[in-house]
Amino acid sequence: MLQWAFDTMLGFGLLWLAWRALNSSDLFKAIVLFIAFGLLMALAWVRLNAPDVALAEAAIGAGLTGALLLAALARLGAMTDQNVSGASAYPVPSAQPPAGSHFSRGLLILLLSASVAGMAYAIWSLPSYATGLSMDVAAHLDDSGVGNPVTAVLLNFRGYDTMLEMMVLLLAVLGVWSLGGLQQQPEKPVAAVLETLSRFLTPVFILAAAYLLWVGADAPGGAFQAGSVLGAAGVLLLLSGWRPRVRLMQWPLRLALTAGAGAFILLGLLTLLLEKQFLTYPVAQAGRMILLLESLATVSIAVTLAILFLSVSSGHKEKSGKGEKK
Amino acid sequence: MDGMSGNAWLPLMVVASALLPGLIIFGLPEEKVRLRTVLNLSGAFAKIFFTGWMLWGVYHGNSYEMRMAFLPGLDLVLRADSLSLLFIALSSVLWLLTTVYAIGYLENSPHRSRFFGFFSLCVTSTSGVAMSGNLITFLLFYELLTLVTYPLVVHRGTEAARRAGQIYLTYTISGGALLLLGVVWLYAITGTLEFSPQGILYHLDTTYHPALIAIFVLLIAGLGVKAALVPLHGWLPEAMVAPAPVSALLHAVAVVKAGAFGIVRVVYDIYGIDFAAELGVTGPLAMLAAVTILYGSLRALAQDNLKRRLAFSTVSQVSYITLGVAIVGPLATIGGVVHLVHQGLMKITLFFCAGNLAETLGIHKVREMNGVGRRMPWTMAAFTLGAFGMIGVPPVAGFISKWYLGLGALEAGEPWVIPVLIGSSLLNAAYFLPILHRAWFRDPPDSWPVMRDTARDFGDKETAWALLLPPVITALLALFAGLLASTWFSPLEWVQLIAQRAFYH
Amino acid sequence: MSSLLAIDWGVIAILLPLAGGTACVLWPALSKPAGLISVTGVVLAIAGLGWRIMENGIYRHAVGGWGAPLGIDLFADGLSLIMLIMTALVGLGISFYARRYFSPRDAVRFWPIWLFLLAALNALFLSADIFNLYVTLEMTGLAAVALTALTGRIDALGGAMRYLLATLLGSLAYLLGVALLYHDAGSVDIATLAQRIQPNAAVWTALGLMSAGLALKTALFPLSFWLPPAHASAPAPVSALLSALVVKASFYILLRLWLELFGDFAQGASMLLGLLGAAAILWGSLQALRQTRIKLLVAYSTVAQIGYLFLIYPLASAGNGIAAGMAAYLAFSHALAKSAMFLAAGNLMLFGGHDRIADLDRAVQRLPLTVAAFALAGVSIMGLPPSSGFVGKWLLLDAAMSQGRWDLAVVMIIGGLLAAGYIFKVLGYAFTQAEVPHDARAVPAGMEWAALLLAIGAILLGFMASEIFALIAVDLVVNADEAGTVWTA
Amino acid sequence: MNSAMTLNSLLLPGILCPLLLACLMGFRTTRALVLPLTPWAALPALIAACLLTPNEARWHFPGLLLGSEIGLDATGQIFLLLTTLLWTVSGIYARSYLRQSTRREEFYVFFLLSMAGNFILIVTQDLFGFYFGFSLMSFAAYGLIIHDRSAAALRAGRIYMMLTVVAELMLFVALVVAAGISGATTFEALRVGLAVMDPADQNLVILLGIAGCGIKAGLFGLHVWLPLAHPVAPAPASAVLSGAMIKAGLLGWLQLLPLGLIALPDWGEVLILLGLAAAFYGVAIGLTQRNPKTLLAYSSISQMGVMTMAVGVGLLMPHAWPLILPAIAFYALHHGLSKGALFLGAGLARSGDYRQQRRIWLGLWLPALALAGAPWTSGMLAKQLIKSHTLYAPAPWDALLPLLLSVSALATALLMARLLYLLRPAARSSAAAPVAGLIIPWAALLSVIALIPWWFTAAIDTSGMRTESVMDSLWPVMATAAITWIVLRLDSFRMLQPVPAGDILALWTRAFQRFRLPLDPGTFSAAWNTLQARMKIHLTGFIMAAKAKLDQTEDYLSRWDVALLYAIIMAMVAAGISIGFIGINTY
Amino acid sequence: MTNAFLYALAGSGLFVLGLHALVMHAHVLRKILAINVMGSGVFLILVALARRSGETTTDPVPHAMVITGIVVAVSATALALALMLKLAEKSGQAVLPDKHGD
């Protein structure tokens, strides 16, 4: 009963935070609320017995996304000379008519209520007991080379998805780069406390990442979580004013970015050649191969996330570098 | 390409004889005049050669058919039967002449490679239209014809030409759309589109009859645009901004003929004339043709622009074909179908002549034609023959058509057609004879309104040979088509063969 | 030979552009050669795949060796194959165009993203797993948006922004549908789902979400609002890619879902899709007619042409077996024609420095190949014979007439007329002289030929209907004795 | 036989000669060569006509037109003789007459073409050849009529052309209907077919045939073009127009109508009445004329009236037709030659000094007397022949016709007297002297006229009318002389105002104008243009509004929020509508 | 009734809330937030319903899917933000432009 109440509270809390985040008068506040929302989501994941997702959410959904949003907001404020974090709720120029003016808001609310009701009914009508693919996963877990079923799915059963996902990440970087850099902004002096914090936290983050990566084989954790924690470390470093050396910017950076994707491609080709089957690991080598893949993916994910942050937060693409100490 | 018999390549050769030179010409640089001329003429001669071959073969009972899979359940079929050969023969001969004429007409003018390229494509599609063995093949070439004539219509690149092109397309593409709709509907009902002597519909249940009538209306509306049936004729007078060889081609060989030919095919080989009569669709079609005949002539009467007058005259004359087709009976059929050839010969003569006047003397209007017969006697002699043919004076070919139409009307018990024929002839006389009077009997002006931009000086000569010969030849052909109508090599004789096939199978 | 046949060409077709794209990231200087080699390789791979399918029937490859439903299956039947061929050929044409189009600086940006896009498309058309389809769809979307914004001009950025938001929303709606389907039937494998799925509230909701989401991504009227700004402002080769291939990706997914999952019990939604398709034809064509700039005109033409694709739904739901064939045909035809059109528009823009229709200024003489390309492609778009567009329209009309769908037939006919209106609007002005004649810049011959060859392809495809249907049919024959994986149209 | 065949076959080159020459006139190189030959163009045909053996000369050309039949019977030969003779004489006459003319070449071209048409229509026995010849002649004659380009000539030409076209078309319909029903292509078969035809069709064919040919033949009521056209043409052209070409209409009747096969009393009476009307009306109007050529034209109308009447009699009495036909043919010959001679003479009458004029004037007496039917002239013979056959006519006509014919002879004689009066030698001399080139052919023609009765008395059975005929033909001449003398004495002739040439044309014109008003192309197109302009305005407004609406709506639909709203609706409808459908299907 | 359904309902609520914001707000940043909230809603449904198999055995496949989804989401967010900034740099405002730039 208590759990029930907690879950209900959590559910409403999520909805309330989301509502506040989306409709707060102040963009800065909105983003902060969104980060809070993300943390609450992580809690929900835990409640849903999904620690892997919780980790990913905390690191990426709340942490990195939040950082990206904040950085973008800061840039936006500097760019449009508007006090975006100030009172102006809708930083819309007067020429733009307020959105939603073309139909009755009532209609929208009505439609949305109807659709939420419909969705609720659809969800409600689902059978209350279903195992999904859990039996299949359990049955083949032993052949997957890892003990954590989520990792098994991610890296083995549905490793192909993950491979494409690595491509999506790479693509995001390429996309951001292809926009061309933003105009260089004068570097703001970094708060001393942040510098101290980063100096303290970075090793912790690296350690945490290594742990997550390692433990991911059998317990919650894995490449994405590790990568995002590592990326968060990079973000912290970047926030504290650290910039990578020019030498590192070109192809070491590129190598790091493509490491995960490249590993997948090579492995794919290799398996295709040896096993005649795409991404089929020999059962004996599966664990090792997955670990290798995960390690490289971790590096790539971390670098990618950091680069994305860097691109959004400040400098020119050409001036950007990897936020990663090897 | 399944179903390729030993004789399959001849229809292809006829199509290719125009297509290949056309495609090569597109790639030729502007200044390669001689090569282009050689290509053009060799294509035209090749086409005549192959056509002659097939004529000989068909006359002796051979059949030529090329079949190739196109759509599920539908083949592309090129087949040479007697009707298609009639049209093919007409187009081959007139293509040759028009090519010669165009070479003369466009001497030293820009974009000739483009012009002749599309010109050849135009003939290609006409050949295809003629030899289509089923409605889908027909549709394909029919629409292709629309497309390849467009660049010819707007060839001059003026704003007026562009507008005329838009009008032309508005009509023809809309017509094509209606045709397509009709064809698809027909296919949905019958599952076949093959042309066959008794039509393909007679076995259908009577419950289909309303639909078949509607399809007929769609098909005729679609074809009627090109055949310039009132009220779908509006493009024809506008398209006369095109260069003279194009007008000649549009009016005599390709476009309007394709429409008229399509009507022939639909009435005889899709519906079957007996079945069409049973449906009761031929009567209204004949009425429509009659209205067109009179309306076209009436409008022609009021035109001062020579080519416009001729254009309205085409509106009127082409409907003779439709009229002949819509009257149920072998004699009317003969009259209608033979007019396909006769009108072609006569009208191309008239347009050639109009082109000569414009190109040589800069004459575009009827009222500028005073005394032009003295300056250009051969041109005007050809014009006179053509005009008399249009009126229906023997021995020019037009008389033969009218005669058979009249006989056919009586045979079919539709005597109302005769007043229509008479009215049309009367109006034809009313708009052609004043031209002849001006040209031959008025005194020429002090100077001719020679076009500034061409500034071609022909000196003592009437005009260039390449411009003069084609109209004279076509005029003579029109004359002999009538004068020697009963000889074995005349169009009439061939058409009688066709009518025999349609009625006494 | 048989060893060649044994190669998993499908996997190669995915991996090759991925490898090429990665190589571009590593060695930016080699972008162009890497790109061209990859694209050519993809063409060969697809050819191999096609060969394999014709020999062995449906292609199915269990990635990781697990097999559905636990693992992900790659799958290609006739429909997928035709989509893949379309992607490969159009991609090749556009690549050769892009070779000369982009400045070195832009080329570095273009090639890797394009290769990833190509890989995503191939993966998408080869996928038999609705979640995997989501990933490929997102990948396609992000790559497409990135390409759209490539010029960095303000209209391109605005277009890309709209496009991104729309595509993300569409993907999310789709993903929600995936979630519902998964939890209803316990699988994301299409074949497995097809066996298990029963009409119930969750499936209805999934149907609504997925069709709306995918319709949004396919720019089905009235959800086409994002398409014209995005497609018109992108660089020419990108516009061509977007219009020819990217919109087909989401369309393909929807069609797949319909053919295999929803078709039997979604007549109502089919009607809706058909209705919107009809509206799209009319509205897109009318808007195209209103445009004064070529690229916008062509973009609106895409809106209209997408409408034709959606007419398949009401016609197929009445039990017509050639729905897949029609879809494949129409999509392929449109891809060839529309890419040619956008490339031609790019040439005209390069040539005159603008794309105002009224000032084309004798392009027909000065840029004949390009105008020819535009015209030939236009013929196909109008649905006039002899072209693939005609064949596609014929198939649709035939189906409509056989089923007594007069309304749809009339809409198609009107659409064709309007298309003729806007195509010839451009062509007409290509003949005339502009009021203020201006100098023209040279257009590389390769770019003209790329456009022309694609357009010629659109025409020639019109003579290959039997081949296309043979491919679709091969697949049905093989399926007959392979129960369980049958999709029947 | 063989030699006869050879002689007969001269006909073909004779017919083709003018056509060939006309063609050769077209080439600049051959023109000079051909020009001197043109006056003689009709000569081969004349020779052929003389040497011909009637009924044996028959050729079948199946390939020509729709199957041509060329051949001549005795009647045809007479027509051919008349025609060729007149054309020959006029041709030679024209050579000198047009020596000064700048349009000589043009004249000859049309002259040759008309000639060819005229020959062809005589020698062909099939419908098509006849129709071809008829058309060729009719259209080419336009060139002869408007040769002067004077306002009167142009007006005459215009009216001639209109009526010609109408005639052509009437004839066309008559032929088509007749041929369509009977299946005939030759006149021989056609007449037979017509005889057995359904009365309605028969009447239509006959009506149109009579009217169509009647226009050419100057049938009463349709004659209006004749007095306008004949005077304005150059004399040689007038001669052939009035002498030869006018007979084409007559020949058309003879060919087309089922004469001798069945009795058509109604039509016969109609023709008799029309013929009589023309005979008197022509004289009455002609007497008022001051232009001798106009007068001659009216005389032609009057004379054609006589022949019309004779045809009418033939329709009444098929059994008598074999007798009537030669009479008509002879009358035609007589009239053609005389009228030709008069026109040519009229062209000469004002040249030279008084003495020369008087000589010519005296020459004119011969054809004038012949026309008046004076004794020992061809006229007498002709009139007697006609008159004798009218005696066989049924009830009122047998009495009435001979009487009326005599009166008509008197009338004609009066008209001739008036002509001679008008052409009497003038005191003042003309600058132009009569040249031999004009005189000789004319004189030759006169001698032929003079000789004809003597030739033909042998050929035609004239027994039984010899004795009284002289007296019978004398009295009109005598009476005329008396009347003339009185009139000249009274000098009241001068007061007579000429009836405008074309007399009832005004009626026609008025009728035509009333008819033409709504059909006037100018009004028609003006109304059309107004309508178009008005529609255009409305349409433009509508299109503008539609365009604005279109843009507005697109702006609306392009809004992010609106579009998303539709997306939501779509998702809901797609989900909901399917449930609805399943519901329908299930329950 | 397990908490699976509760969270799933919350998820659909989030989806709709996000949708509302996506429609109503003009500022691109808010739209991006809205997309993210919607995504979270979808993820929540996906994972929550996996709980139906019982307290102990959870279906790991949706978990993997959500992790994939989160990574995709962050990539998309980054691209969207970069695009927004670029747009703002060019146009001076971070709102969606009207129709097309003509």
Annotation keywords:
heteropentamer, C: 489 residues, mainly alpha, disordered C terminus, E: 102 residues, Helix Hairpins, 75% helix
Can you characterise this structure?
The complex is a heteropentamer of chains A (326), B (505), C (489), D (587) and E (102). Chain B has 505 residues and is an all-alpha fold. Chain B has one domain (9-503). Chain B is built from 20 helices and 2 strands. In chain B, strand 1 (64-71) and strand 2 (74-80) form a beta hairpin. In chain B, helix 3 (82-105) runs parallel beside helix 14 and helix 17 packs parallel to helix 19. The longest helix of chain B has 32 residues, at 159-190. The model of chain B has no long low-confidence stretch (mean pLDDT 88). Chain C is an all-alpha fold and 489 residues long. Chain C has one domain. Chain C has helices at residues 2-6, 9-26, 31-56, 78-101, 104-125, 130-148, 154-185, 190-196, 201-218, 227-233, 236-262, 267-290, 294-317, 323-352, 363-366, 368-382, 388-402, 406-431, 445-460, 465-480, and strands at 59-63, 72-76. Chain C has a two-stranded antiparallel ribbon with strand order 1-2. In chain C, strand 1 (59-63) and strand 2 form a beta hairpin. In chain C, helix 13 runs parallel beside helix 17. The longest helix of chain C has 32 residues, at 154-185. The relative contact order of chain C is 0.11. The model of chain C is unreliable at 477-489 (pLDDT under 50). By secondary structure, chain D is mostly helical. Chain D folds into 2 domains: 2-516, no CATH class; 526-586. Chain D has helices at 2-9, 11-26, 28-34, 43-51, 74-97, 104-123, 127-145, 151-182, 187-195, 199-217, 225-232, 235-256, 265-288, 292-316, 321-348, 354-372, 378-390, 395-422, 436-459, 466-490, 505-516, 521-557, 560-586; strands at residues 58-61, 68-71. In chain D, strands 1-2 form a two-stranded antiparallel ribbon. In chain D, strand 1 and strand 2 (68-71) form a beta hairpin. In chain D, helix 17 runs antiparallel to helix 18. Chain D is elongated. The mean pLDDT of chain D is 84. Chain E has helices spanning 3-24, 28-50, 60-91. The model of chain E has no long low-confidence stretch (mean pLDDT 85). Chain E contains 3 helices and no strands. Chains in contact: A-C, A-D, A-E, B-C, B-D, C-D, C-E, D-E. Chains A and E meet through helix 1, helix 2, helix 3, helix 4 and helix 5 of A and helix 1, helix 2 and helix 3 of E.
